[in-house]
Amino acid sequence: MANEQITPPEVQTDDILRVNDPAFTLENVALVTGAASGIGRATALALAANGLTVAATDIDTEGLADTVDRAAELNLDGRIVEISGDLTVDADIETVVNEAATLGTITYLVNIAGAQHISPIEDFSMETYDHLHRIMLRAPLYLTKLCLPHMRDSADGRGCVGNMCSAHGHYVTADKVAYNISKFGLRGLTQSVAAEGDGRIRAFSVSTEYVKTPLVTDQIPDTAAQRGLTPQEVVSEVMLSESRSTEMMDPVEVANLFVFGLSQHGQHLNGGDLRWDGGMTLTY
User: Fold this and answer.
1) pLDDT digit string (tens) for 131-179?
2) Who contacts 66 (Cβ-Cβ below 8 Å, separation ≥6)?
3) How far apart are CA 262 and CA 201, in angstroms?
4) Taking the alpha carbons of 193, 194, 196, 197 in that order, is the dihedral positive or negative?
5) Domains of the chain from N-terminus onward
6) Which pLDDT tens digit goes with each residue over 222-246?
7) What is the C-alpha to C-alpha distance for residues 43 and 205, in angstroms, rounded to an integer?
8) Helix (H, G, I), strand (E, B) or coil at 267
9) With bands split at pLDDT 50, 70 and 90, how would you rate the model's confidence at 5?
10) Are the C-beta atoms of residues 274 and 205 closer than 8 Å to each other?
């Protein structure tokens, strides 16, 4: 059982939240970034299971292909179309949006792609900072800028942007300055979209505790070596030390939050943050 805490799990159909929403159709497109693995893959699968066309993008082409293969294995009601692209390159971002627009009406944008680098501020490479910033904050802004006209020009002029924030968008831990800044910034982007959306285009963010994704689990061996702990001690004493939860979240649990938030059931969620952090930032 202990190993389940640090092994990214496969999405199963029974794990996916299904909602009744007349806008969840093949004609409407959800553009999902970071779709090659982890939360991005789970979200792409969950939205396709709810009948949407998903434009799945990532720089990892092999991972994207695996996401599409998994969708076929699960026999989902919607579809996933892979569009590879590098979110640090503006031309790629433009191509991704243009290609997504050929699949139907871009109605939903879900910014999930993320990266991590562990280093104290005085040793933090500015080149690395710029790279992480472009992926986690600048790209979501540019994607939003490009997708908003498609949402406004749709039949009902409605749309929604979902942003993957983090407990680190509410409080920070040491040695993650680029990640911390980006996640705080995403909450500002979310609220800015809500302020300009006239109630027809919504935006929300999702802030979670640690999730069993490759981005997280790949950090465990290095953290264990750095702190002289076992991998399981890293999970219990570092990652979950301030949470009331006893294990990390599964990616599909986060995906289900996006399904809910994008749907008509989230119609009053606008500019807000779904804080699903196991009490990490709210209890002592």
Assistant:
1) 999 999 999 999 999 999 999 999 999 999 999 999 999 989 889 999 9
2) 36, 41
3) 11
4) positive
5) 21-208+250-276 (3.40.50.720), 210-248 (no CATH)
6) 777 778 888 777 777 777 777 777 6
7) 14
8) coil
9) very low
10) yes
Tokens of 144: 């939003």
Would you say residue 7 has pLDDT above 70? no
Active site residue 108: no
From the candidates 129, 142, 171, 179, give the one annotated as an active-site residue.
179
Is the pLDDT at 122 greater than 90? The verdict is yes
Of 250, 227, 246, 251, the residue nearest 235 (C-alpha): 246
Q: Per residue in 187-219, pLDDT tens?
A: 999 999 999 999 999 999 999 988 888 777 777
d(CA 261, CA 277): 16
| Lookup: tokens for 235 | 């999970």
Phi/psi of residue 190, each to 5°?
A: -55, -45
Structure token pair of residue 192: 């800015």
Cβ atoms 234, 220 nearer than 8 A: yes
CA 185 to CA 162: how far, in whole Å?
Answer: 14
Closest C-alpha among 270, 281, 96 to residue 195: 270
Cβ–Cβ under 8 Å, residues 281 and 171: yes
Considering only CA atoms, which of 83, 101, 97, 99 is closest in space to residue 40? 83
